Amino acid sequence: MLARPSARHARRVRPAAWPLLDFLAPCIVTCSTSKPIHSPPARLRPLNDSQRRFLDSALRVNQAGELAAVLIYDAQTPLMNRSHPHLRPLMKHMYDQEAAHFGKFNHLIAKHRVRPTAMYPLWRVAATALGWSTALLGREAAMACTEAVETEIGDHYNEQVRVLLDWAEKTQARGEDLGDEMRTLMAELRKIRDEELEHLDYAVEHDAKEAKPYELLTNVIRGGCRTAIWISERV
């Protein structure tokens, strides 16, 4: 009968590989020389014609809208700074954010080879005139302008985010991947939307609703924004 080895001399059996959780990817990797076990990647579905049309119109109108916002603040700022110096930091903050949004859509529209709106010259004149005239009417009117514009722009970005969320849900249901490009765009739209809605809050905090005549002024501006959005999506 063979003697059993003592516990002290017993050879410890080591597993072929110790599993380690990879926190950077949805898979398990091992510390052995065996190949990592990866979950099969989801298929990346190319954009169909409808989705491509949406992307084209979204980037085109967003670029035009951010250009208008930059020009409105650019026209308002000198008059506002002169008559209300305490608003200088706020005006600069909002202008800088709009300029960053405009730069982002300039990059995306070039990257995706999207044609800018043909209405650029008209929107330049209209936005500059709107900014200058509301600042001339006073602080409350300038803030009412911001409130009206950002209300429409916030709703517009919300609708675009809803469309992208619908895409994501449908592609996931088919076992496909929306793609990093569209996920990044959705995150950017959410970030920009939130900053636009912050501008709306700033405007209300600085007496936008005290503008005279408030209802007429904001309704006209909001109607103009909706018209400009509709045209820029198509032309």
H and E order:
EEEHHHHEHH
Query: How much helical structure, as a percent, in the residues?
Result: 55-70%
Taken from the alpha-carbon principal axes, the silhouette is: elongated
What's the total helix number?
Answer: 6
Distance between the termini: 94 Å
Task: Give the integer mean of the pLDDT values.
Answer: 84
What is the CA-atom radius of gyration, in angstroms?
Answer: 27 Å
Q: Can you count the beta strands?
A: 4
Give the neighbour order of strands across the main sheet. 1-2
**Uncertain spans:** 1-10, 13-35, 37-42
Query: Main sheet, how many strands, which sense, barrel?
Result: 2 strands, antiparallel
What structural category do the secondary elements indicate? Answer: mainly alpha
Amount of beta strand: under 5%
Could you explain how this protein is built, in words?
This protein has 235 residues and is mainly alpha-helical. It has one domain (56-234). 68% of the residues lie in helices and 4% in strands. The protein contains 6 helices and 4 strands. The chain has helices at residues 49-83, 88-111, 120-137, 139-173, 180-205, 214-234; strands at 19-21, 28-30, 43-44, 176-177. A hairpin with a 6-residue loop joins β1 and β2. α1 runs antiparallel to α2 (88-111), α2 runs antiparallel to α5 and α4 packs antiparallel against α5. The model is unreliable at 1-10, 13-35 and 37-42 (pLDDT under 50).
